[in-house]
Structures are given as structure tokens and as C-alpha cells.
Write a structure and sequence with these properties.
By secondary structure, this protein is an alpha+beta fold.
Length: 372
Amino acid sequence: MLQVQIKSHSGEVFTIYGEGQGDRGVFLLEDPVGLMDAPLTTSWQQSTCGIGARMTGVTYEPRDVHLPLGVVCPSSPEAWRAVDAFARQAFSVEKESHIIVKSEDGTRYLNVRLFDAPQMDIKRDPGRAGYAATIFNLRAGNPMWQGEREVIEWDFTGKNFYDHIKVSNPGDRPLWPQWILPSPASIVLPDYDFDNGREQWVRMPFQAIGQDVLVDTRPDREEAVCAGHPMWLATLPDHFVHPIPPHTKDFELPIIVNPYPFADAVMQASGLPTRIPTSFIVASAKTLVGDFSQFDIETMRQWSNEDLASRIYSAAETAAKTLEELGAAVIATITAGALSLLLKGTFTVADKFFDQKAALVVQPEYSRPWGL
């Protein structure tokens, strides 16, 4: 069963097609334009002596929607004018409204605003007739239909230094996830290369208390926003380049708790490479999963900084064996004592180290309001 609704920029929701249509006196008329496939243009290149041409790129244009709506209220001219005003006020130039389509494929919506004046058919007095048809000329800056937003919460249990979060992308467009990172935290986020089946990582700087961070991996958005710290983004050394491909099902996306918060500063001060190799962090995290499996969280929360640091250092010694000379240089600098000081300077007490968490926000996009 297909249902089409409008959610105005002020939050009013009314149905224009399907079950409940006309609940506010507004109906979808025939021949709407621009609701189906997202508009696109392709670029092609042809050599001087070549045969044919090859495509060099694709651009998705803003989506223009011409939405014909009928306003019906035969009881009185005054009542009709009130319904007409309600329909007109549902759309604005300054603020976005939503066209919502519900079908067997789920709920999808398109963000739109007026880009040209509505065109009303006033060949006869609409107040006396109790009816008028108006074409609303709308534009969607993002031409893609938005699917249902899902927030997947992840908690550090003290054992899952290296863990996975199950994600899917049912849409026909690449999905660029968002991450919500409450403070304090020292997280390594995935930038998984699906084309080559290879783990890649973005190491987030340590987040002190109060530095809650929103990460948006979409290339045209600000990559990381930290409340109250406008320059926090400048400390981000890595960047996201890989989306989740269309029609990805139940993929286990990896995530890591960095056991060495602020350790890069120690490396730099020692004249070593300014950053601990990511491979060293990954190897350490995987080792810690096994080493900590014998402890319960209540026991771990009772540890002192020195207790926690000594166990992390033991995992670092194991990881160093896989990195030869560079691993030896790291382990010579990041001592158990240094780790204890780093933990005290970042999380204050070991108990806070086990409070880290994250949330993955995924919202698929579609070229059409249903199907695909």
C-alpha cells in the first residue's frame, strides 16, 4: 500500500495520497513531476582519432519537483481559504519540508523547499467552488531519497579492544556513516576499503572530558565537530575516503579502542616517528582481547593506573615482535611507567578508561521513492 505525506517545515504532517488521504483537505493530483529517478548528467571524452567515447564522470543535479495538489473544502469560502492557507504554508523558501513516501520497501523522504512561486488554477472562484488545483514548484538540494535512520550503539566492555559492529546499506547509493563519540575516549574508527577487502583506519585524537565529537564521513561535510572546540578538527591527522557500498548486507565493520592515548606526543618528544604505527595499535588491540578475556569488568574497574598500564604494556611487547626494528623503538619509548602517566593524564583513573562508547549512525539513500 502506497502512502504519500507532507511534513511541513513547522512539523505538521498530512496525507495527500493513500490511506488517510485528504485528512487536512489536501490531495495529490495526477501527473506529479520529478519524484522518481534522481536527475543526472554524464561527462564523456573522445580522442581525436578514436572511435566513440568514454565516460569520465557523473554529476547528480538538484531535483526539481512539480507537485500538483488539490485543496478541497466545499463547506464555505472561509473554510476553503483556511485549508488553502494551510497547504501554502507547508512549504517555504527558507526552510525545508519533507515529502514522505511509505511503501512495502519502507519509509523514505525527500527534503524540499520552494524554488519558484506556486501556480494556482483560478479560472473560477475557488472559494465558491470549494476546490482549486495548485502546482507547488519545489527543489531538493540533495536529490536522493533518505531512508530510515538507524543508530547503532557500541560500548567498550573492557575486553573488546578490537571489535565489530554489524552494518548494512540497503540503498542503491554509497552510504557515508556518522559517528557519535562521547568523551572521554580514545577511539580508532574504520575506513574500510570494500573494493580491496582491506582494513583501513582513522585514528581519532584523544577526547578529554567535555570534548564530545560528531564525525561525518561524507566528503562534502565538515569531518569532525567537537562541542566548544572549533579548532579540534585541525588535530585530525587521518581522513575518511571509503563509503559503505550499495546493497551491502550485514557487514562486520571493525572498531578499536586505542590503548595508547596521547602516546604520539611521547614518540615525537623522543625523536621517533611522530605517530605510533596503526599496525602496532591494531596488533596490540587484538592481543588485549585475548589477555583481558580472563577478567570480569568489576575486577578491571578496581585496577589502578599502574595495573592497567602493566597489562597494556605486556600486549605492546607482543605487538612489537611483529614490527621488528620499529616495534623495538616504540616499546623502548612507551614504557609501562609512561603508559601509567598517560592514563592518569587522560582518563585520570583506570575506571574511566572502561567507560568509552560510540554510536554509529547510518541512513541509506535511494534514487527512487520505492524499489531499487
